[in-house]
């Protein structure tokens, strides 16, 4: 009988310790520190310069996609191909070509800029 009385508190402790476990991820706990507010061309052009310019410039523009100027980039984005490529959607050539996928924050910034109407 004494064993059973000691067993009840132990089982209750074990039960309550497991019910407190949660599957938290870092973003839920600390928030997303990717600033996508007020995205303009001047805030996203470095992404394209660092990741796209070597193949998509006036000197070498693969698949008629140029990223030299605001007008060039806006025309390219309007085709929908760059967005599909950087997100690596089915049916699109993954970009940057031969490189890892862009960081999620960079993609979010580009998406916010596009969603805002691609302001200069």
Helix-strand layout with pairing:
Layout: H1 2-19, H2 26-30, H3 41-51, H4 70-78, H5 81-87, H6 104-115
Model description:
This protein is mostly helical. The chain has a domain at 41-115. It contains six helices and no strands. The protein has helices at residues 2-19, 26-30, 41-51, 70-78, 81-87, 104-115. The model has no long low-confidence stretch (mean pLDDT 85).
What's the multimeric state? single chain
Shape, principal axes of CA atoms: elongated
Q: Hey, roughly how much beta strand do the residues contain?
A: under 5%
Which value, in Å, is the CA radius of gyration?
25 Å
Q: CA-to-CA gap between the ends?
A: 79 Å
Estimate the helix proportion, in percent: 40-55%
> What do the pLDDT scores average to?
85
**Class derived from helix and strand content:** mainly alpha
| DSSP summary: helix tally | 6
Uncertain spans? none
Quick take:
The chain is mainly alpha-helical and 120 residues long.
Record keyword descriptors for this entry.
120 residues, mainly alpha
């Amino acid at each position: 009988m004494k064993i059973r009385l000691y067993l009840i508190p132990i089982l209750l402790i074990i039960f309550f310790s497991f019910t407190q476990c949660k599957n938290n991820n870092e973003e839920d706990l600390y928030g997303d520190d990717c600033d996508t507010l007020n995205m303009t061309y001047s805030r996203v052009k470095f992404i394209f310069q660092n990741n796209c310019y070597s193949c998509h410039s006036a000197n070498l523009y693969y698949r008629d996609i140029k990223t030299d100027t605001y007008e060039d980039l806006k025309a390219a984005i309007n085709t929908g191909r760059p967005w599909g490529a950087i997100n690596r959607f089915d049916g699109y050539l993954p970009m940057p070509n031969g490189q890892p996928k862009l960081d999620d924050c960079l993609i979010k910034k580009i998406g916010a800029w596009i969603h805002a109407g691609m302001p200069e």
